[in-house]
Records
---
Amino acid sequence: MYLTPEEERMMAGESGPTLQKAMEILVALGDIYEADRLIPIKSAQIAGVSYKTMGDAGLEWISDLEGKVQVPSILNPAGMDLERWQEMGVSAEFAEKQQEIIEAYGSLGIGVQCTCTPYYLQSFSATYGDHLAWSESSAVSYANSVIGARTNREGGPSALCAALVGKTANYGYHLDENRIPELMISVDCELDASDYAVLGYIAGKAAGKRVPLFKMRSTPHRDQLKALGAAMAASGAVALYHVEGVTPETCRKDFEPPAEQLTIEKSQIDEVYETVSGDGITECDSAAVGCPHCSPEELEDVAAKLEGKVVDNNVWIFTSREVAVSNPKIVESIERSGAKVLCDTCMVVSPATDKFSHMAVNSGKAYAYLPGMCKVAATIANIEKCMEKGGGAHSD
Ligand code: F3S
């Protein structure tokens, strides 16, 4: 891989051990994937924040680093709401370690917003064609597909190295030839709200790592595209998809229809609801919405569904701190029901979820991850059912 004289000097340790280590990791990745050079990035989104997944080894690694990130950088969800962790039932020992991780990242100049939906923040924009180093799989999918930016699915350490150097290796989804659709998926029905998460769950399994091109009857909006991409990244490993006439790349480029084609019908989506939901939802002791983190519109939708109701079970709504702080009335309205709007964290990366036995979710990704990562059974349903049956919502 070609390195500029300045990059060579960093590799040789002339800019200190942190940048030397960061360069070694970026170059090693570049060599594996046959990148020709490093390219500048506009921003980084760094996973590996929850103490639950990082442990002491991760904390030690971050704490040893020096210097400052070269581009705007943001963190993925942590293991707790940084202000309301006690209400979640997180232990003081965990909270102390989690704060140390946040402070270690902060000392590298990384903004303390912990979210997997950085694209909803006023303060952190990405635009068509930008090269990025983002790591959370649903954020990567959204950046590539809905924004038309370019990022590989970085690991937490490689995103951090890219942030410190301000560059990433030029391979994978940074290159035109890897962004061409490989599988056409026709969706032969109208879809509503949570149908997109279930469609993503089915399509991700079929696509695996390939780039699908959807042909749809309905025109999905940004939150539906987010749900579709998050589920495909979890049930498969899809990091980029296109929707004909909707996503920016298909509006600007004429892709050849891929030779391989499949059709998904409403009956397949209904079958998932039946097989994975069944009556399980009545056994839920908790419900959670906000995987990926809620947009203002999704918070508004939850507030409308909980209007005039109280919930019996634990109901958690996850969003970024910036979105919660910018929408105080909606948050207040949701919390009047007894549900909690939590920031900086989520149902999958927080140890607080482990106390539940069965959670109702409206997300294909949470549905795929809760049993393995939290040992909590999951049922997927639309928001209304999650609130009413999973949360036990009833009129006041
Ligand atoms: Fe985000 Fe957590 Fe889901 S990081 S995508 S809310 S598993």
---
Amino acid sequence: MSQHHEVAGHVTTRSLRQMKVDGEKIASLTAYDASFARVLDEAGIDFILVGDSLGMVVQGHTTTIPVTMDEMVYHTRLVSRGIKRALLMADMPFMSYASGEACLRNAARLMKEGGAEMVKLEWGELEIDMVARLTECGIPVCAHLGLTPQAVHKFGGYRVQGREEAAARKMKEDALALEQAGADVLLLECVPTALAAEITAAAAVPVIGIGAGPQVDGQILVLYDILDIAPGKRTRFSKNYMVGADSIHVAIGNYVREVKTVSFPAAEHAFT
Ligand code: KIV
């Protein structure tokens, strides 16, 4: 068992759900190593995601697709060593959950070898079935909908999802079906504010947004984006927290405070 499981006040699936009930916003960021994980943990981040975005911001690829299972396990293990309070979520990389057997085996690796407490899958036609199988095995799951970066080539680029009425209806139905199948958290990426608010109101589980406006239960961003060290142009929904901060600790603290007080995201970070 990882050390962080034994600390009093450690965030759990139950506490995330309670935060939704209490109306307390959930603040989350990605991390890929123990040192940053410790800084985030000490700043009061509620859950840390070892995102497959590491393929882009750590490894220098142009998509998340090349990231392997071994790499995800390695980075998850590093992050687990820096955490005391935050819940640890890890991404299942591209094609690691394409069959039931692979999905269970790979999720188990993230938990047993990496110390993850929840795994995240991106939406696809198979996802409801996979969420149900993981749930049957007692594995907590976050279901990622909207712009799912592993499907970038299918989408033909990184674009806002759910703008048309039929697509919005389908996303809401999928979100509720995923919750029904056992998802503990829903994550919406690049979704119009009104649709994200509707899904959040309809779901009993916490809904976390990235580019989904302020009316969700919490926010997540890519750490390297908010520190302004990610390659390329910063995405519209992110914010450079190094502006006006004299250290990384202050920048992360400001992000947590702005999420908790709903000062972030502002209208300029959201989509209609
Ligand atoms: O991989 C990642 O960092 C993610 C976030 C963008 C939510 O999935």
---
Amino acid sequence: MTRIAIVGVAGRMGRTLVNAVMQDDGVTLAGGIVEPGSSLIGTDIGELAGVGRLGVSAVDSPEAIANEFDVLIDFTAPGVTLANLAFCAEHGKRMVIGTTGLSDEELVELEGYGEKLAFVFAPNMSVGVNLTLKLLETAARALGDEGYDIEVIEAHHRHKVDAPSGTALKMGEVVAESLGRTLKEHGVFERVGQCGPRSDKEIGFATVRAGDIVGEHTVMFATEGERIEITHKASSRMTFAKGAVRAARWVAGQNRGRYSMQDVLGLG
Ligand code: NAD
């Protein structure tokens, strides 16, 4: 049985992860970590997540439960995730990371940990999204350089702090790579005022933030006379949480390295 601890257990994803771990027979819930100084320290994490008392109290650091877990699942914020990578590398733990919004420098730092521990990092843990990435690769290869304009449109709830979403960027990257382009050169993240007509090779991004939308992504390939849209809609955070628990079970048996959900699902 893989013993799991959840960091950010009081967050939207943290609470959903408690539910997902409880529904999976191959793992046990070993602990939950909340922000240092939080009034929730000591609270039963089952009660926090609305699944009833589990007899596991929230603590304020991975150190406090260092001997009790094998895999740390982290859906928090970039700085917190990097600190947890350092802790897990030092203590022989594995990680599943869903945090998004890392800067280029933070991504380089994260990549470096691939030599020190086994971890899965994915901006979207849903099985459907990861299959969608495969479909996008196929579509881009078949259509992209034949005069199709490519646009990525995403929508999320009003509390999301980063934009475009990590998933939208990943989708853009997959399409760009399939066409020998890069987002650095061809990504267009803002259009305002007299910005002129689009260029042939640009990959445009549009962001919607509203209400309680869990996560919707569309990649559009449009040309004169037709338009193809590949869309994924998440209707519950449970899809991300179940993917993360599946990744935790998988990474528990892996050697050092930085893995993706494509690796977990055998789509790599
Ligand atoms: P949230 O704000 O609801 O939760 C984050 C939690 O982390 C908060 O409860 C906060 O108190 C806690 N936290 C902050 N610092 C901490 C620390 N030092 N120790 C312990 N806990 C700490 O946000 P959310 O909607 O749950 O999203 C969290 C992250 O996960 C975001 O980056 C989001 O984009 C990402 N996300 C990824 C996926 C995916 O599939 N990869 C899916 C949904 C969300």
---
Amino acid sequence: MSKTITVLPGDGIGPEVTDSAVRVLDYLFKKFHHDVHFVKALIGGAAIDAEETPLPQKTIDQCKASDAVLLGAVGGPKWDRQSMTVRPEQGLLGIRKALELFANIRPAKTFAPLIDASPLKREYVTSVDFVIVRELTGGLYFGKPSERRGPHKEDVVDTLAYSRYEIERVVDKAFQMAEKRRKKLTSVDKANVLESSRMWREVVTEKAQDYPDVEVNHALVDSTAMQLIRNPSQFDVIVTENMFGDILSDEASVITGSLGMLPSASLRTDKLGLYEPVHGSAPDIAGQGKANPLATILSAAFLLRYSLDLDKEAELIETAVQRVLEQGYHTPDLQVNAAQTTSVNTAEMTDQVIAAIAAQIPEQV
Ligand code: NAD
């Protein structure tokens, strides 16, 4: 059956990096005879310019009708300068909400040729390979409306609220992910202080019965923040509440050292997901062919794995990225450690990834 991927290029380098990822996907779909087609739609500043809204209804409808969404990035000085009530970033938050994407997946994986870009010592980061599953639509950022109280408004309240169901569905996602990886799940909370964390722990312990192959441990968020620096290679899958996940995933993102290399996925209970690089629209280099497309290409690998169940094709991409870096190819933002290095532009980097995929596929396919 034919599948559809909606592509939301957005602003700045968004169109360049999504074009690269589409080229890589298109190559794989043709090679393996998968019937998948792409439809483009507007989001962010580009949508404000064309439709006066960062998230047109037809974009939402198009995304809902597709099997996966690939997004570039939104925003830029053009829309910062205008004193508008509509902002490109509203498109991003709006689409995540409209699609009810409750699980945000951010990996931290070091690539051997980039290890010296990490602020941590080489020996601590050589074998780092974990993912953080962050609850995205509940918790402290989505409690009852925050308020200042009292006659002089000197008391303040934010609410960390979860239903059991909201915890169960994200914890399930994390277990499923751990089953496909090294079968280790770390659930992060603050159960020594917060009632919501005690329920979180209860749910994880109950759910563990359904996944007997996965080893589970519970850790406090403050201790996890330290462990991510002291011994990041101990982790496989981490699952946690919205705000804890926000902070820990930003901490984890610097371990690997390169913003242009970090993919992400936002998932829900069915297969529809939204895939995007962690970086922004990089207006300083937009349109110059300097953008590193690898974070978006790696997001496309996630798309294949989580939305289209094409694990083998996803691995071909991931191995290709690894090989290209080992061969010393790099965009200007990357310092690779290889015997010979070659600086390439966005399109050339994409060509190299496609060539490295082709090199792994036997002739008869
Ligand atoms: P940024 O991630 O766009 O850029 C930070 C620095 O990293 C810049 O020097 C940029 O050139 C470089 N960089 C980023 N991605 C790169 C890539 N793929 N290849 C090479 N270099 C890359 O963050 P910023 O400068 O803080 O924000 C710029 C705009 O992007 C703002 O409008 C911001 O609101 C928006 N933004 C969007 C998203 C998103 O769409 N998800 C995320 C963050 C920021």
